[in-house]
Amino acid sequence: MSDASKGLRLYNTLTRTKEDFVPIDPRNVRMYVCGPTVYDFAHIGNARPVIVFDVLFRLLRQLYGEKHVTYVRNITDVDDKINDRALRDFGAEIASGKLSLNEAIRRVTEKTADQFHKDVAMLGCLEPTVEPRATEFVEPRPDGRADMISLIQRLIERGHAYVAAAEVLFDTASMPDYGQLSKRNLDEQQAGARVAVDAHKKSPGDFVLWKLSSPEEPGWNSPWGRGRPGWHIECSAMSAAYLGEVFDIHGGGLDLIFPHHENEIAQSRCAHGTETMAKVWMHNGFLQVEGQKMSKSLGNFYSINELLETDIFGGRKWPGEVLRLAMLMTHYREPIDFSVRKLEEAENTLRKWKRAADLAPAAAQQLPAAMVDALSDDLATYAAFQVLTQLAGEAAEGNDAAASLKAALLFLGFDVGAAKVDEGEIDKAIARRLELIAAKNWAEADRIRDELLALGVQLKDGKDPITGERVTTWEVKR
Ligand SMILES: [Zn+2]
After folding, report:
1. pLDDT in tens, 182-199
2. Of 164, 196, 159, whose CA–CA distance to 174 is shortest?
3. How far is the CA of 466 from the centre of ligand 1 (A)?
4. Which domains does the chain have, with CATH numbers?
5. Which EC class, in a word (predicted)?
6. Angle at 308 between CA 307 and CA 311, to 5 degrees
7. Distance between Cα 375 and ligand 1 center (Å)
8. 3-state secondary structure of 456
9. To 10 degrees, the CA torsion angle through 289, 290, 292, 296?
10. What does the mean pLDDT of the chain come to?
11. Distance, CA 253 to ligand 1 centroid (Å)?
């Protein structure tokens, strides 16, 4: 095992095996996860990848250092579903000329993106390092970062794309090993395609890179006329913009393997002439609700916000951290059945853990190694939670188990109220300690220092550069 691997093993959809993870550059571990299309409230199925890859982000930061991980999660703010929603919500204003479609679209996407940010913050997720919006990566950029039009141009130049019937299409037959991720071959796809609909395509599996817009639709000027990008090309552009042509981890839900991720790979590899787009492809499993596929027609379609703020699910509101734990109690690659019982179980578990963690005034400096090991085994959250339950059993007033548990819960994104610090009391304690030091009562002075440390307050002694007097400052350590 090389030093860079840090013992982390991840299941790679590309090879269908669990592999040692060795970053391309351990000083900058790079991960891309497909983000939301912002036309409606995010549903709880959307919450799963956000939570799962948040845990991976936290683990990578733990293993490689906070400054050495770049996590990009995009926002898709150009999509025909968004246009439809803008027409539905602002149709009258658009018809009367009060609002242009583009302005209506901006209202829909901004409101939805704000809501998404609020929702995922409630779920205890860290913000990604960068959150690019697709509309900002359509045209060539002043900063020279990758953009969609330039990528499409390069695909045409290299013989991987063609213009037909007012569209630019990717030529799947131009890529001999197209289909590696989903393990589909072109013949299989052709057998299932509706040829009549796709008469302008060279092969039925060819997909849209660019399509023309009507004057009312959102559009950008391009060498192929005023139009808008297909969905897949945006992730190829935004990942290249921030992570380069080849990066470490690409994640998303299982439903994205085909066609979205397959087509991202095709575009990126053919445009850049690389063997791979990302080394490791990770996919979280499907989510069901009370044993059934979530769908609007079944009436079991729930947004994150509905679970947080209404009593629509189980007759009560659910705290974000309960949703978070419930989501993580099932291994990320397994299908999950989201149910009221599961949420109740998560809430009980969390209550026990928190009660035990509260026995420690401050979190330990080190995370429990057994938990880190479990997470390093392809995010074995269930095994990691067994470690937490064991620590909770061993926890007692002020002991190491309680402090370790507190550190573990904070690391995993659960709020265990870090030591509440009363600044006035600290200043009094520091003044008292300085008096004791002046009186050479070292034992009593140290006792005060240790008491503060147990509350998570670390003292630093220094000298005033002018008077030469002893000066004590403090900071909160977690
Ligand atoms: Zn994507």
Report:
1. 998 656 655 545 444 578
2. 159
3. 59
4. 3-284 (3.40.50.620), 305-412 (1.20.120), 423-475 (no CATH)
5. ligase
6. 55
7. 25
8. coil
9. -50
10. 92
11. 10
Rounded to the nearest angstrom, the distance between the alpha carbon of 74 and the centre of ligand 1 is: 8
CA of 76 to the centre of ligand 1 (A): 9
Residues 440 and 444: their CA atoms lie apart, in Å, by 9
Q: What are 111's two structure tokens?
A: 């409101």
Q: Is 43 annotated for ligand binding? A: no
Phi, psi of 317 (to 5 degrees): -80, 155
The three-state secondary structure class of 161 is strand
In one-letter notation, the amino acid at residue 254 is L
Q: How far is the CA of 322 from the centre of ligand 1 (A)?
A: 28
Cα(329) to centroid(ligand 1), Å? 26
Ligand 1 mean position, distance from CA 239 (Å) = 9
- Cα 261 to middle of ligand 1, angstroms: 6
Q: Which residues are bridge partners to 221 per DSSP?
A: none
How far is Cα 91 from Cα 317, in angstroms, rounded to an integer? Answer: 33
Q: Is 440 annotated as a binding residue?
A: no
Nearest Cα neighbor of 170 from 217, 223, 229, 257 is 229
Structure tokens at 207: 């997909």
296 is in an annotated binding site: yes
Taken as a whole, the chain contains a residue count of: 478
Cα separation, 387 vs 371, in Å, equals 6
Q: Cα of 275 to ligand 1 centre, how many Å?
A: 19
Tokens representing residue 411 in the block: 């690391």
pLDDT at 478 exceeding the cut of 50: no
Rounded Cα distance between 42 and 294, Å, is: 13
Say if residue 406 carries a ligand binding annotation: no
Helix (H, G, I), strand (E, B) or coil at 463: strand
For 314-369, where are the E strands, in sequence order? Answer: 336-338
Prediction pTM value: 0.85
Q: Give the CA radius of gyration of the chain.
A: 27
- The tally of CA atoms less than 13 A away on the side-chain side of residue 459 is 23
Retrieve residue 187's tokens.
């013949």
Per the annotation, does 34 bind a ligand?
Answer: yes
Read off the pLDDT of residues 193-246 as tens digits, 9 standing for 90 and up.
Answer: 544 457 889 999 999 999 999 988 889 999 999 999 999 999 999 999 999 999
Q: Decide the pairing of beta strands 470-476 and 457-463.
A: antiparallel
Asked if residue 391 has pLDDT above 70, the reply is: yes
- Three-state DSSP class for 235? helix
| Residues whose CB falls within 8 Å of the CB of residue 88, separated by 6 or more in sequence, listed in order | none
Q: Could you tell me if 249 and 278 are in contact, meaning their C-beta atoms sit under 8 angstroms apart?
A: yes
